Amino acid sequence: MKKILKFLTSRLVVVSVLILLQLAVLIFLLTLLQNYSFYCYIAMVALSWILVFYILSKRDNPMYKLAWIIPILAVPVFGGILYLIFSNHNISHKLRMDVRDLIDRSQPLSAQNPAVLEEIAADPAAERQSHYIRNTAHYPIFGNTATTYLSPGEEKLKALCRELEKAKKFIFLEYFIIEPGIMWDSVLKILTEKVKEGVDVRLIYDDMGCIQTLPPRSDQTLREMGIQVAVFNPFRPALDILMNDRDHRKICVIDGNVGFTGGINLADEYINVKKIHGHWKDASILLQGEGVWNLTVMFLQVWEALTGQKEAYERYAPPRQFYSRDGFVQPFADNPVDDELTGENIYRNLIQSATENVHIQTPYLILDHEMTTTLCLAAKSGIQIQIVTPHIPDKWYVHEVTRANYRQLIEAGVEIYEYTPGFLHSKIAVADGKYAVIGTVNFDFRSFYLHFECGTWLYQCSAIQSMEQDFEQILAVSTKIRLEDCKIPWYRVPVRGFLRLFSPLM
Q1: Residue 481: DSSP 8-state
Q2: pLDDT tens by residue, 254-310
């Protein structure tokens, strides 16, 4: 009873109930207007048709357009109103403008070293990918950076605590999910010690990501410990329940020359202390050297946008020293405030650059037409494409859409595997054993279109070989999906079709 009562009185439930009440009142008022006046009914239907033509004229993905047009036309009285309420990106206009302005202002701080470009010029595929990231996301490529692949989450926690203990100047943390437990408590203990030593400790967390994991007013509690905190896009009782734009990044920067990113949040399921969906398989990358600068800039851009504090970015530049020679790294950020699908396009570039094979790990496989075409064309052209997804889902409806994409890919020659021991949460793609992407970007609409994301493109790094070895171990405990496995009972066909149609809105 205590658990049930705690859940029913949680902020998520209270805010959700308030939103549902507002929605019920809105529907009631619209129904009254419809019944009261024929002209009101005509006006609402006309609004829906105007919105349909507006949606068709937008530059959005066709599947996203279709997911809205069908309900608008099916229920024209309410469809148009619901679109106006729920369709837009829900960060404030001010935050949107601040992010754009900060990205523009910080570009001069990310000047490219020409000598690095000369070193990768011999490989046209590497040069094209790096050029795309520099010219769209505005993050340079670096040498002089050591890379370490960390998987599963237990390995990341060990490395994270070890590096946090060494901090002398500053620690920047940006995470989607934080939950009290062994992992977060271990990190928090070090952070409070570092605060006492005079280290500048800052934390950004996503309010929606943490709404069921952090106690109310956790930001104030952390501030009382001396940790500076900024909460991204607070969940509020207003009719924008989807709260589409979330901060899905996982970043840690220590003293400017040590950085972490990847799929691992700060909660116990990520280190298999708490098992919810079987064994949790995840991955992260540790960068040491000049390449960490891009992660530092990413953090400070969001921090400045949220807090309004003007930052002298140069103060946090990595110390000038030599690190072990280990290929090239180009950390990048993606955001929904521009019209560029940076994360998806980097994956597509990587797939198209392959001459032998592509190995992909992703928890979700909810693809738009462009990504499906890219994967199928590569497989039909003789490239071995192997994709691993979870066998045990965290969300049944998302897993249903993931499986709905199997047939078309398998028919094109793509090999699909499911990680049998549990839930695979890694976001990794490797091409030909020499190009790789690791970060927070899932193969789904939310990551490609709606979330603030980040990742690292790697070229000829030692960590890539570790990723490939790990991939082989994953395949050994995974089940290959055959074409006959894609058959489902007739009564599940309409359910799957419905979910797939509205997958851009999930």
Answers
A1: P
A2: 999 999 999 999 999 999 999 889 999 999 999 999 999 999 999 999 999 899 888
Domain of 359 in residue numbering reads as 342-505
366-392: pLDDT as tens digits: 998 899 999 999 999 999 999 999 999
Q: How many domains does the chain have?
A: 3
- Residue 334 in any domain: the answer is no
Contact 433, 464 (CB under 8 A): yes
Q: In this structure, are 232 and 322 located in the same domain?
A: yes
Q: Among 71, 74, 42, 68, which residue's Cα sits nearest to residue 54?
A: 68
pLDDT beneath 70: ranges in the chain:
1-20, 22-23, 25-27, 29-38, 77, 85-100, 102, 104-108, 236-244, 501-506
- Whether 61 is in a domain gets the answer yes
d(CA 128, CA 126): 5
Contact (CB, 8 A) for 206 and 233: yes
Name the DSSP class of 232: E
Give the C-alpha separation, 350 to 96, whole Å.
Answer: 29
**Residue 19 domain-assigned?**
yes
HEC assignment per residue over 37-95: CHHHHHHHHHHHHHHHHHHHHCCCCHHHHHHHHHHHHHCHHHHHHHHHHHCCCCCCHHH
What is the side-by-side order of every strand in the sheet holding 415-419? 328-334, 453-459, 435-439, 428-431, 357-361, 384-390, 415-419, 478-480
What totals of helices (H) and strands (E) does the chain contain, helices first?
20, 17
488 within some domain: yes
